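Training component of the fellowship. As part of building independent skills, the fellow (R.M.) carried out the full modelling exercise for a liganded target. The chosen ligand was zinc ion. The inputs are recorded below so that the supervisory panel can assess the work.
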Amino acid sequence: MDTSVEEETDKGLRTLRSNNRASLPAPRSTNKPTSAVSEKLEKTLARRESELKRKIDKLNDEIAAASKREEEATKIIKERDDRTRSTAYEQLENNFTCALCYDIMACPWSLNHPACGHTFCAECILKWFFSGMHRACGTWHASLDCPICRSTLTHPRPTPPRPVLTFPFSPNRVADAALKDLIAVVAGKEKPKAKKKVRSLTKPGVTLPWEAWLLGGSAHTEWLARDDRGRFMVNEVAKGWQTMDYDLLVITKETLGV
Ligand SMILES: [Zn+2]
Ligand SMILES: [Zn+2]
Ligand SMILES: [Zn+2]
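Fellow's submitted model of the complex:
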């Protein structure tokens, strides 16, 4: 490149730079403002900073208020849920307590007697029925009276075939559906969080009667197991009723532990 052109370019750039500097405010890092412009800028910046700070403070207050409202709403929802659970549990206790085990019924079946129709847990009613069977001969000697109203059932035929209509029990589907609905209300959809969480309705250490019925709770788990066992057993016995021989009757009695 030609030297003179280089010099000319340098000179031109220098002029451009010095002109620019004069029209621009001093950079903020300069401690001593050198002109009225930069002083004004400092003031503007300071004002904006304090405006921003006020806005941030206001926003923080709003966030705090919102989270307080949310906390209160959560508490109200929890109290409402607790009341719903408590009511459902009361209905379970009042209408679906088994007269044989005194627990909430699991898989309800009723006695087939025109004057009775009383309902018990499938497992309980089978235990009651098979406990009356004499192991040595596979027949019933004592009378089969409903544990509630004493209506007397006909003794089953000791040897197969047995007419299907002589099966002494039938499923109580209405009770079964109602039970499941109520149990689901008490249990909830989610497992409750860690125990250390302080309950709003009770003092620490005080438990509500339905708490063991929450999803994953001891009573709920135990009920599910009873429901499963009862359903399986009663269906097996119902299926085999017509053809069950002495051996099967005894095995059933043994399986039920009566
Ligand atoms: Zn029962
Ligand atoms: Zn009865
Ligand atoms: Zn006998």
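The panel noted the following from the submitted structure. The chain has a mean pLDDT of 88. DSSP finds six helices and seven strands in the chain.
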